[in-house]
UniProtKB/TrEMBL annotation:
<dbReference type="GO" id="GO:0070403">
    <property type="term" value="F:NAD+ binding"/>
</dbReference>
<comment type="pathway">
    <text>Amino-acid biosynthesis.</text>
</comment>
<protein>
    <recommendedName>
        <fullName>Prephenate/arogenate dehydrogenase domain-containing protein</fullName>
    </recommendedName>
</protein>
<dbReference type="GO" id="GO:0006571">
    <property type="term" value="P:tyrosine biosynthetic process"/>
</dbReference>
<dbReference type="InterPro" id="IPR046825">
    <property type="entry name" value="PDH_C"/>
</dbReference>
<dbReference type="InterPro" id="IPR003099">
    <property type="entry name" value="Prephen_DH"/>
</dbReference>
<dbReference type="InterPro" id="IPR008927">
    <property type="entry name" value="6-PGluconate_DH-like_C_sf"/>
</dbReference>
<keyword id="KW-0560">Oxidoreductase</keyword>
<dbReference type="InterPro" id="IPR050812">
    <property type="entry name" value="Preph/Arog_dehydrog"/>
</dbReference>
<dbReference type="GO" id="GO:0008977">
    <property type="term" value="F:prephenate dehydrogenase (NAD+) activity"/>
</dbReference>
<comment type="similarity">
    <text>Belongs to the prephenate/arogenate dehydrogenase family.</text>
</comment>
<dbReference type="InterPro" id="IPR036291">
    <property type="entry name" value="NAD(P)-bd_dom_sf"/>
</dbReference>
<feature type="domain" description="Prephenate/arogenate dehydrogenase">
    <location>
        <begin position="1"/>
        <end position="278"/>
    </location>
</feature>
<dbReference type="GO" id="GO:0004665">
    <property type="term" value="F:prephenate dehydrogenase (NADP+) activity"/>
</dbReference>
<dbReference type="Pfam" id="PF02153">
    <property type="entry name" value="PDH_N"/>
</dbReference>
<dbReference type="Pfam" id="PF20463">
    <property type="entry name" value="PDH_C"/>
</dbReference>
<dbReference type="InterPro" id="IPR046826">
    <property type="entry name" value="PDH_N"/>
</dbReference>
Length: 278
């Protein structure tokens, strides 16, 4: 089976490493950066790399698009005439509803696109940050659409499990975007807000412990990518922010009113929920 990875950044590079480690020898790479391709070939992540996808696409059985959300539908539009009949495409994008709309309008009937999301990102950038061991034990999500063939859904699930993902769950695109707005995008919004606070100063780290470091880690953010993710999931993220504001206002109110009992109840509720999750 010939597999092409379009975009050899930290996620695409990690997939290339993982597939090679799992025994897939015909893994090919496409990247606009020639140095990235040369490094991937030298390290054995890919069998061969090219800067122009047109050079290899017609021979590919699986095409994994590790691109920004805004690049996915245009890539399909530009290259669909080269797709092999029966080719399976997939993505790693953190938003689904809007991207599915865009892609399904341009996807040829001879191709199947399995929309997927590996739940193990990184604040690092580029292939030098690639590490397939980040996938070991991680979760992944697949958002089936009516045109998907069951055998192709199972194929992508199999590839994810072979490179280390422990659980691959099928969910609707709408549920995906609603929950990702909460568990991922809201967390990034909070981290950015804390770091950008006017209270931050040169002396901040003198007083900071592990909680500050852990919360602010993801503020080291790829602004171009996350701007697209936020805007493509704007309605769901705004809802998550508003629901969070309700909880923050309740905590704030208990402080204003010096209401120790309510404050304890808020903390107790959070403790119980966290223990339930983990």
């Amino acid at each position: 089976m010939n597999i092409a990875i379009i975009g050899l950044g930290v996620i695409g590079g990690s997939f290339a490493m993982g597939l090679q480690a799992a025994g897939y020898k015909n893994v090919f790479g496409v990247d606009i950066n020639l140095e990235t391709i040369e490094l991937a070939e030298k390290e054995g992540f890919i069998r061969k790399g090219v800067v122009d996808a047109k050079d290899i696409l017609s021979d590919m059985d699986v095409i994994l698009l590790s691109l920004y959300p805004s690049q996915i539908a245009p890539f399909v539009t530009q290259h669909k005439a080269l797709f092999k009949t029966g080719v399976v495409l997939t993505d790693v994008t953190g938003v689904k509803t809007e991207i599915i709309k865009q892609v399904t309008t341009v996807l040829p009937e001879t191709a199947d696109f399995i929309f997927a999301h590996p739940m193990r990102g990184s604040e690092k950038k580029g292939i030098i940050g690639a590490d397939h061991t980040r996938f070991v034990g991680a979760n992944a999500l697949i958002t089936p659409v009516p045109i998907n063939k069951e055998e192709n859904l199972q194929l992508i699930e199999q590839l994810y499990k072979e490179i280390g993902f422990e659980q691959v769950t099928r969910v609707s695109p709408e549920l995906h975007d609603e929950q990702i707005a909460y568990v991922s995008q809201l967390m990034h919004a909070l981290s950015v807000g804390v770091v950008n606070s006017s209270q931050a100063s040169d002396e901040t780290l003198t007083f900071a412990g592990n909680s500050f470091q852990e919360l602010t880690r993801i503020a080291d953010i790829n602004g171009e990518l996350w701007s697209e993710l936020f805007l493509n999931n704007r309605a769901a993220l705004l809802n998550s922010i508003e629901l969070f504001e309700v909880e923050l206002d309740a905590l704030k109110k208990s402080l204003i009113e010096n209401d120790e009992n309510t404050l304890k109840k808020i903390f107790s509720k959070a403790t119980t929920q966290r223990k339930h999750w983990y």
